[in-house]
Amino acid sequence: MTVRSMRSAPPRRDSVGRRAGLTIVGAPSAPAAPAFAAPAAPALDEATIARHTVAAREFYAARRRRHKHLPADLFGEPTWDILLDLYVAGRENRRVPTTSACIGAHVPPTTALRWLRILEARGLVEREDDGRDGRRTFVHLSPAGLAAMDATLALMCQRMEDIADKILTPTAED
């Protein structure tokens, strides 16, 4: 077959209708890992919960501020936005409709829904039907998702304190 005839030949398709042999990087079609099982988290005191909630809200806001100076399409991490949003909402005892979680991810709705399905399959997010409106569902962090976010935020807060100490503590050379 010549190059000319290869260009005119229709692309081969797999059983799902995608072009055969193509791999789309960064666009998962199904969860690749089993459900996530976070280690049992110790009970957190109110001050720690408040600290983690403030940190999660600030991490989410910082991602929006970054877009004022750098093109948004350079940074794609909708799952982190979803997890931060659900963490804050959960700690504030707010219910999050699926559509709101999609909007908060700052990606097209189909992309956000795909990531919500992946987070649910991994055991980090749970869906709950709205008892009053059969068309609506809510999403929230699962107990494993909440424990994982608490552990992640604890590490991030500690690291931020370490960085602040390095910046604010004078060295012997000063």
UniProtKB/TrEMBL annotation:
- Signal peptide region: 1-37
Q: Which UniProt keywords apply?
A: DNA-binding, Signal, Transcription, Transcription regulation
Determine if Transcription regulation is one of this entry's keywords: yes
Determine the domain of life of the protein's source: Bacteria
Which GO terms fall under molecular function for this chain's record?
DNA binding; DNA-binding transcription factor activity
Q: Does the keyword Transcription apply?
A: yes
Q: Which InterPro entries match?
A: HTH_MarR-typ (IPR000835), Tscrpt_reg_MarR-type_CS (IPR023187), WH-like_DNA-bd_sf (IPR036388), WH_DNA-bd_sf (IPR036390)
- Membrane-spanning ranges: none
**Domain named HTH marR-type: which ranges?**
68-172
Q: What is this protein called?
A: MarR family transcriptional regulator
Tell me which species this is from.
Novosphingobium subterraneum
